[in-house]
Amino acid sequence: MGDGERFAIGNAAGVTVTDGSGRVIFEVDNGAPTAPAPPRPKEMGRDRLDFHGEYTLVRYSPDKQQLACVFSEVSTEIRLLNAKDGKKRNRIVLTNRAVRLDYSPDGL
Predict the structure, then answer these.
(1) Which of 35, 37, 44, 58 fits a disulfide with 10 by CB distance 3.0 to 4.6 angstroms?
(2) Neighbours of 7 (CB within 10 A)
(3) What is the 3-state secondary structure (H, E, C) of 22-75?
(4) Rounded distance between C-alpha atoms, residue 9 and residue 88, angstroms
(5) How does DSSP classify residue 2?
């Protein structure tokens, strides 16, 4: 996802934010858990929305001031990061794993 000047890329390693030329501005590692992940039921292997392996979901907020991220290490929380430097602003603990992520157009 890009904001027109910067691009946020989520992958197995975490989040990388670059400028338009590809120069890395900052990276956030898909690091250690801060909240326990829910148990994985046997039937989850048949879930077509289930991710396998490491991943990071990332989206810019409509005002481009923050990034919402879900890291595979803690798929039960959304981390809100400052879009300029990657510093953690807040986190939202979920009752289940996030498999998709987006903002509403008005940012609420």
Answers:
(1) 58
(2) 16
(3) CCEEEEEECCCCCCCCCCCCHHHHHCCCCCCCCCEEEEECCCCCEEEEEECCEE
(4) 17
(5) B
Angstrom distances, CA of residue 108 to CA of 3, 11, 29, 89, 105: 18, 26, 27, 16, 8
Q: What is the pTM of this model?
A: 0.74
pLDDT digits (tens, 9 = 90+) for 52-84: 667 888 999 998 999 999 888 888 899 999 999
Q: What is the pLDDT of residues 27-36, one digit of tens each?
A: 998 874 444 5
Tokens (6 digits) for 29: 């590692």
Amino acid in position 12 = A
Instruction: Give the C-alpha separation, 64 to 36, whole Å.
Output: 29
Decide if 76 contacts 38 (C-beta within 8 A).
yes
